[in-house]
C-alpha cells in the first residue's frame, strides 16, 4: 500500500464545487466571533466516503451516524462556544437528532378541516419538544452555529483546511474536536474509473492506498495554538490506549478521546499527555437518556480554559 503526502493530496484532488461558498461562510463566522473574543469549536461529525467511480454510483463508507458529533455540538453551545458543525451530509445534526425517524410525526396531532387544517403538538410531547426547540431557536438567533457538510474524504479535507485557516486567527481560543470517522484508505483520483463499473468483465480488483494523516499539518502548521482533540476508535481493547498514546506522542496535540466501537456511547477514555480519565455511564444513566458527550465536553471545556488562560497575550493585529 502506498501513501502520498498531504501536499500531494491537495494538489491532486480539486476542491469541491461549493468550496468557495463554504469558505466565505467560515470566514464570516470566524471573523464575527473573533471580534467579540468568543471561543469557537470546530466539531467534525459522521463518516467520509471513498467513491469507486467519478460519476459515483458506489462508494466505500463507514458506520458513523454522527451521534457523537451532533450531541457534542449542543453541549459546546451550552458552554457558550460558537460552533462550526462540519458534518457528513444527511448524518445526525444538533437538535433535530432528538427527533429522527418517525419520532417527530408521532408528537403531532392533526385536525383536518380543509383549508383550516391545523397541526398541534400533543400535550404530552410539549415537555420533550419545548426545551430542544428553545435551545435551537436561541443558538440560531445568536448566530452561534454554522453548518457545513461533506460527503467524500477529499471534501472533508478541503473543508477542514479552510476552517483551520479561519480559526488560526483565534489562536488558543479555538478548539478542534475531530470526532468524524475519517477514511484511512482511498483510491487515488487517476485510478478511479469515470463511469459505473460493469459486472460483465468480472469482479473488479480494487487497490486501496493510504490517506495521509491530516493531524500532522493541522497541529503543526494550520492551527498551532489551538486546543486540538482527536479521537481514536478501535475494536480491540488491547490496542486502544497504546494507540491513543502513540498518536499524542506523534502529533503532540492536547487530547485523544479513545473509544471502542462496541461501547462508544457509554464509555470513553480521555487520554492527555499527563493523564488518562475514564468516563463511564451507569446503566441507569443510559436508560435515563444521559449523553456521555455532556461529560466529555465538560472536561474539555475545563481543560481548554487553562490552555487559553495560559497562552501569552495576542500580538496586536
Ligand atoms: O458517529 P458515532 O456513531 O457517534 O461514532 C463516533 C465515533 C466512534 C466515530 C467517534 O467517537 C470517533 O472515534 N471518531 C474518530 C474515528 C477515527 O477516525 O479514528 P481513527 O483512529 O481512524 O483516526 C484517528 C484520528 O486521526 C481522528 O481524529 C481523525 O480525525 C484523524 N485522521 C484520520 C484519518 C486521516 N487520514 N487523517 C486524520 O487526521
UniProtKB/TrEMBL annotation:
<protein>
    <recommendedName>
        <fullName>DNA/pantothenate metabolism flavoprotein C-terminal domain-containing protein</fullName>
    </recommendedName>
</protein>
<comment type="similarity">
    <text>Belongs to the PPC synthetase family.</text>
</comment>
<dbReference type="InterPro" id="IPR007085">
    <property type="entry name" value="DNA/pantothenate-metab_flavo_C"/>
</dbReference>
<feature type="domain" description="DNA/pantothenate metabolism flavoprotein C-terminal">
    <location>
        <begin position="39"/>
        <end position="93"/>
    </location>
</feature>
<dbReference type="InterPro" id="IPR035929">
    <property type="entry name" value="CoaB-like_sf"/>
</dbReference>
<dbReference type="Pfam" id="PF04127">
    <property type="entry name" value="DFP"/>
</dbReference>
<feature type="domain" description="DNA/pantothenate metabolism flavoprotein C-terminal">
    <location>
        <begin position="170"/>
        <end position="265"/>
    </location>
</feature>
Amino acid at each position: 500500500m502506498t501513501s502520498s503526502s498531504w501536499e500531494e493530496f491537495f494538489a491532486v484532488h480539486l476542491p469541491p464545487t461549493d468550496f468557495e461558498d463554504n469558505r466565505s461562510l467560515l470566514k464570516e463566522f470566524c471573523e464575527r466571533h473573533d471580534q467579540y473574543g468568543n471561543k469557537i469549536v470546530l466539531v467534525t461529525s459522521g463518516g467520509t466516503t471513498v467513491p469507486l467511480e467519478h460519476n459515483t454510483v458506489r462508494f466505500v463508507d463507514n458506520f458513523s451516524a454522527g451521534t457523537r458529533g451532533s450531541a457534542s455540538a449542543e453541549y459546546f453551545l451550552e458552554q457558550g462556544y460558537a460552533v462550526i458543525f462540519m458534518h457528513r451530509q444527511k448524518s445526525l445534526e444538533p437538535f433535530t437528532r432528538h427527533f429522527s425517524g418517525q419520532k417527530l410525526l408521532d408528537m403531532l396531532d392533526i385536525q383536518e378541516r380543509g383549508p383550516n387544517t391545523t397541526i398541534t403538538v400533543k400535550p404530552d410531547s410539549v415537555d420533550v419538544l419545548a426545551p430542544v426547540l428553545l435551545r435551537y431557536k436561541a443558538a440560531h438567533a445568536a448566530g452561534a452555529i454554522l453548518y457545513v457538510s461533506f460527503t467524500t474524504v477529499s471534501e472533508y479535507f478541503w473543508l477542514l483546511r479552510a476552517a483551520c485557516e479561519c480559526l488560526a486567527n483565534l489562536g488558543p481560543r479555538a478548539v478542534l474536536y475531530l470526532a468524524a470517522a475519517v477514511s484511512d484508505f482511498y483510491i487515488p483520483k487517476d485510478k478511479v474509473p469515470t463511469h459505473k463499473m460493469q459486472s460483465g468483465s468480472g469482479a473488479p480488483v480494487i487497490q486501496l492506498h493510504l490517506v495521509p494523516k491530516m493531524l500532522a499539518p493541522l497541529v503543526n502548521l494550520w492551527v498551532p495554538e489551538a486546543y486540538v482533540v482527536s479521537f481514536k476508535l478501535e475494536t480491540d481493547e488491547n490496542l486502544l490506549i497504546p494507540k491513543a498514546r502513540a498518536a499524542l506522542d506523534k502529533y503532540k496535540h492536547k487530547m485523544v478521546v479513545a473509544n471502542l466501537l462496541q461501547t462508544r456511547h457509554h464509555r470513553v477514555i480521555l487520554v492527555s499527555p499527563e493523564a488518562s480519565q475514564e468516563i463511564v455511564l451507569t446503566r441507569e444513566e443510559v436508560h435515563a437518556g444521559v449523553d456521555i458527550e455532556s461529560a466529555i465536553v465538560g472536561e474539555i471545556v475545563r481543560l481548554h480554559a487553562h490552555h487559553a488562560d495560559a497562552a501569552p497575550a495576542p500580538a496586536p493585529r
